[in-house]
UniProtKB/TrEMBL annotation, chain A:
It comes from Brevibacillus parabrevis. One of its GO terms (molecular function) is transmembrane transporter activity. It is a multi-pass membrane protein. Keywords: Cell membrane, Membrane, Transmembrane, Transmembrane helix. It is found in: Cell membrane. The lineage of its organism: Bacteria, Bacillati, Bacillota, Bacilli, Bacillales. Its main location: membrane. It holds the Pfam family BPD_transp_2. This is ABC transporter permease. The chain crosses the membrane at residues 12-39, 59-77, 84-104, 110-133, 145-165, 195-213, 246-271, 283-311, 323-345.
UniProtKB/TrEMBL annotation, chain B:
Its main location: membrane. GO terms for molecular function: transmembrane transporter activity. GO terms for cellular component: plasma membrane. The chain crosses the membrane at residues 6-27, 39-60, 66-89, 101-120, 154-173, 203-222, 284-302. It holds the Pfam family BPD_transp_2. It is a multi-pass membrane protein. This is ABC transporter permease.
């Protein structure tokens, strides 16, 4: 029995790793087809990320929101919901943080936490719209949350234009210094890379994710609903309430992520012409991470490196940055169709088995 | 103010904007009627818009007005090929169909801009096409006051879309092929028992789906935008899915829903023309189609009737 478990744990590790390798290979093929040198490009990617203190710090900056949105998607997944709306929840978190950051004058120890909490609540409420519509009206949460992403985008632009953007400009006024969560000394250590407390909050959020799902009664219910809503209903759990709750908590993660981008990185909010994309990358992060908190953090690190390093590929090998989207898409595809990956994994597993005997 | 003219213009614009949605939601219909969820309509439309624009660009100097037709048709072919991985993942490897669809959406968004940059020396969009579809006027009928301009003056793609609706209805409900397709989506085991090849039907359906959605995408780049960029499709694939659900997986219903969403977009341009943006912020007008979609879906409580086996991989061994 123990051996069986061991094999399964191996597979849960091997499948994403092989999927990542296959994804990178697909990217390499796309590069060869486009007349680029994939080895040179991937080397440039690594060099970009690890080449200087500034870029390394900026990679951490890039990883942070991905942890948040990854957790947002993974949490809902655990309750059987596909939260494709992390994008919108992230955006409303940004709106809330900007609003609090610009409008109030408070001591820093109240102002900054208040702005983060505002982002969390906004993201949570935005997420629970899709949760409520699913629970009360039976509407597929995938469709509603995609629509809510667009609504959030235009809502953000309207709020900014109407209240916070001085005429003739493209971005809001700066948030008050008391609401900023930048870590100045750490930032200086990394050649003024934009490092902030959000990264620590992200790690705490991952721990919170673990504790609430696996150490509390409420988390047990959330997971039970995800595994079998009918059995949960029969056992006396309120499925609908759990659906809304899961979307609220998931949305909260994304909302904090959005808030931290404003409070720690930009300190203002600009007019958006397209989705920022962190929410969509969160889907990939959650899937590669197997919807576990540790997995999400590791996957976010990988995706942060890929997306930030993409600029290096452009600079070092002339490869358009969109190539990295092809890599990410392929990784998601191979994780989804893990049957394909297993064809590649099988020989490895069999060899191990033979070696063991 | 000539209200007849305003309404005539509104209907005219509605048809322009609905065409892509009609193609794409019909595409979704084939796939979902066969039991395969297709959230990848967005990505398939992107591939269609990209292929249509690039091939038209390639042929416009040599073939002139024929070029958009080549682009349009080959966009359909490209869409069918692009849909193949979705079929492989969801039918053969029994993957989560929503996740596989998301992967294809990512792939389309990345690949199309990647290739655009390679072809157009680093530019994120194609150059404006010199040869795109021009509107056709049906002889005699287009002279009818108001109605003529509203309905009988449209892009050839619009006429094709309405023909496709009728054709799909006939194929799905009046032919053995359609019966098999529906059987596979409702009760694959029963279908298998009477000798229908479930996997083959689903592969076929997903590929038809890709072709039609791509035609929808090509419609956008070859009629309204005259180029391809990263935001040419901008969520219309998802609205097409909403139209499919709103239209209860029926060709006429999907067409009706697509026209409804088309009105939302047509009103958008109408509001801008009338200078109403002074009173209603443009952002709210941009939101309109998406808010309407949510409201419409919320109003559909338990009345949507999805194919019974939708989203469930068929396993020959299971009962």
């Amino acid at each position: 029995m123990n051996k069986v478990i061991a094999v399964f744990t191996k597979e849960s590790f091997l499948v994403p790793v092989v999927a990542i390798i296959l994804g990178l290979l697909t990217g390499a093929i796309a590069m060869l087809a486009g007349g680029f040198n994939p080895i040179q490009a991937y080397m440039a990617l690594i060099e970009k990320v690890f080449g200087s203190a500034y870029n390394f710090g900026e990679t951490i900056r890039q990883i942070t929101p991905l942890i948040f949105t990854g957790l947002a998607v993974a949490f809902a997944f655990r309750t059987g919901l596909f939260n494709i709306g992390a994008e919108g929840q992230f955006i409303v978190g940004m709106i809330a943080a900007t609003t609090v950051g610009v409008s109030f004058d408070l001591p820093a120890y109240i102002h900054a936490p208040l702005a983060v909490i505002a982002g969390a609540v906004a993201g949570g409420l935005w997420g629970s719209i899709a949760g409520y519509l699913k629970a009360a009206r039976g509407v597929n949460e995938v469709i509603t949350s995609i629509m809510l992403n667009w609504v959030a985008l235009y809502l953000a632009n309207w709020v900014m234009n109407a209240f916070f953007i001085p005429t003739g400009q493209q971005r809001s006024e700066m948030i008050k210094e008391s609401s900023m969560i930048t870590i100045t000394w750490l930032s200086q250590m990394f050649d003024s890379a934009r490092l902030h407390w959000g990264t620590l909050i992200a790690v705490l959020a991952a721990i919170f994710f673990y504790v609430i799902l696996w150490k509390t009664k409420s988390g047990y219910e959330l997971r039970a609903v995800g595994l079998n809503p009918h059995a949960s209903e029969y056992a006396g759990m309120n499925v609908n309430r759990n659906v809304v709750k899961a979307m609220f908590i998931g949305g909260m993660f994304a909302g904090i992520g959005g808030a931290c981008e404003i409070l720690g990185v930009f300190h203002y909010q600009a007019i958006m012409t397209a989705q920022p994309g962190y929410g969509f990358d969160g889907i990939a992060v959650a899937l590669i991470g197997g919807n576990t908190p540790l997995g999400v953090v590791l996957a976010a690190i990988l995706f942060g490196i890929l997306t930030f390093g993409a600029a290096g590929m452009k600079f070092g090998a002339g490869v358009p940055v969109e190539l990295i989207r092809v890599v990410i898409a392929s990784v998601i595809f191979f994780v989804a169709a893990h049957g394909i990956v297993k064809i590649f994994v099988k020989p490895i597993l069999q060899k191990k088995k033979e070696g063991g005997h | 103010m000539d209200w007849g003219l305003i309404i005539s213009n509104l209907v005219h614009d509605t048809i322009v904007f609905s065409t892509a949605l009609i193609f794409a939601s019909l595409g979704g219909l084939y796939s979902e009627r066969s039991g395969v969820v297709n959230i990848a309509l967005e990505g398939m439309m992107i591939i269609g818009a990209f292929t249509g624009a690039v091939l038209t660009y390639a042929f416009q100097d040599s073939l002139g007005p024929l070029a958009p037709w080549i682009g349009f048709i080959l966009a359909g072919v490209a869409g069918a090929i692009f849909a193949l991985p979705h079929a492989v993942a969801s039918v053969t490897f029994k993957a989560d169909q929503t996740v596989s669809g998301v992967a294809l959406n990512f792939l389309a968004a990345g690949l199309s801009v990647y290739l655009t940059k390679i072809i157009f020396n680093g530019a994120g969009q194609t150059t404006t096409l010199s040869s795109v579809f021009t509107k056709w006027s049906i002889p005699v009928l287009h002279d009818i006051p108001y109605l003529g301009h509203a309905i009988f003056e449209a892009y050839p793609t619009s006429f094709l879309a309405f023909i496709a609706v009728f054709f799909t209805w006939y194929l799905i409900f009046k032919t053995p092929f359609g019966l098999r397709l529906r059987a596979v989506g409702e009760h694959p085991r029963a279908a298998d028992t009477v000798g229908i090849n479930v996997k083959k039907m689903r592969y076929t359906a997903v590929m038809i789906s890709g072709a039609l959605a791509a035609l929808g995408g090509a419609t956008i780049s070859l009629t309204t935008t005259s180029n391809f960029s990263h935001n040419t499709v901008s969520g219309q694939g998802f609205i097409a899915i909403a139209a499919l659900i709103f239209g209860k997986w029926h060709p006429a219903g999907a067409m009706g829903a697509a026209l409804f969403f088309g009105v939302a977009q047509a009103i958008k341009s109408l509001v801008q023309i009338f200078g109403l943006t002074k009173y209603i912020p443009t952002e709210f007008i941009f939101m309109l189609p998406y808010v309407l979609t949510i409201l419409v879906m919320a109003g559909l409580v338990g009345r949507s009737s999805a194919p019974a086996a939708l989203g469930k991989p068929y396993d020959t061994g299971s009962r």
